[in-house]
Design goal:
Two copies of one chain form a homodimer. Chain A is mainly α. Chain A has two domains: about 50 residues, Arc Repressor Mutant, subunit A (Orthogonal Bundle), CATH 1.10.10.60; about 140 residues, Orthogonal Bundle (Tetracycline Repressor, domain 2), CATH 1.10.357.10. Chain A is built from eleven helices and no strands. The structure holds a DNA duplex.
Chain lengths: ~200, ~200
DNA sequence: GTCTATAGCCAGATAGAC
DNA sequence: GTCTATCTGGCTATAGAC
């Protein structure tokens, strides 16, 4: 194994371990030792590769956001008709979150603690842009296909209906008194039901 | 001022300060010194009244949940017709969260870190019960007033549409590129628009 | 690049005077 | 009940050997 390979392996092992721990416990709750254990490496290597906990955290956060952003973009910048877009997004997004259950919560939580992070994200090349979505909604209203609704409100609703059930899973499981298997099935059903709900709400 | 009065004042000052700090920074991010400063008292008094950070946190968490629970109950256990219930809940709930903007996030976040807390909450006297809501939805479906929908899914949707925009405020502000004033106005508009959205989605 | 050992700091908690 | 002073442990970070 070459030195370069070791480099890449160790560095990405650290990043992957850090993702798991940070997303589970947050910046404040995570421990460098815990990340080292998760990556099966020595704690001082974390500092060798990423200098500080803060910088390691920022690497994780950026990586997490750049995984979520394309998901949002798929609703926003896509040429398909509005209803198809809503169906595809709901279906794809829920599949995505089932694979990364802690990711949306992590991003939203850390953005709440550091709202100034948003400024950095806005500058990123692939930050989602809502203009296309907005004009598409406005066109469909003008054409009499859907009821009048502010595109921003519709977008908030779409994101809320898809994200929230995963972020609030423990609370909702308790409230609905269902076990993990039943809850997973509810989420599976939402892949189509959420899109139906939204389309029924707006179609004329 | 009697000793008793001082007791009550100090103890409740601590609890109020702890609410503000814990809800803002979470269990891990909060510092006992910070809470003491916020309450304008000596740090060791925190331990005198609440023994440990953990116990103080639990007092705050219980108090926060017992503020949120009645809000949820108002959708669930109320005799008004379903559509009125949805309108009232949306209107009241958004007003409530405007006053306590960090509360839902705090509860959901800490429940995610400690899912076993839910067990304790379930045992509480005033834990929300969904049975009345469920049978009401099923009746309305049977009477042909609304489209078929699982009551659990409808409840998830109602809560999601009302809670999420506050939990994800920093992300949504960035995504929609709006300032605080505009965002507050969007939330104000949602007091009626969310109810319309939900009712349109389900009514036949 | 990877390890051990440790510096240096900070937070929660307690002892004890008043 | 409230204060000051201090203990104790744990955590980030670094120094330095290999």
């Amino acid at each position: 194994m070459t030195t370069d390979t070791k480099n890449l392996n160790t560095e990405s092992e650290i990043l992957n371990a850090a993702k798991r721990i940070f997303q589970l416990k947050g910046m404040d709750g995570a421990r460098m030792q815990e990340i080292a254990d998760e990556a099966n490496i020595n704690k001082s290597l974390l500092h060798y590769y990423y200098r500080s906990k803060q910088l390691l955290f920022e690497a994780v956060f950026k990586s997490a956001f750049s995984l979520l952003a394309p998901q949002l973009n798929s609703v926003l910048n896509d040429d398909s008709p509005l209803f198809d877009k809503i169906r595809n997004f709901t279906n794809n997004y829920i599949s995505f979150v089932v694979k990364h259950p802690y990711l949306p919560n992590f991003i939203i939580q850390e953005l709440n603690k550091n709202p100034e992070f948003v400024k950095n994200l806005l500058a990123e090349r692939h930050f989602p842009n809502i203009e296309k979505f907005s004009s598409q909604v406005d066109e469909q209203i003008a054409e009499g296909v859907i009821k009048p609704i502010k595109p921003t409100q519709l977008l908030i609703n779409i994101i809320a209906l898809n994200l929230f059930p995963f972020m609030a899973a423990p609370l909702l499981k308790g409230l609905l008194k269902v076990d993990d298997t039943t809850y997973r099935q509810l989420m599976e059903d939402r892949k189509t039901e959420v899109a139906d709900f939204i389309i029924n709400a707006i179609k004329l």
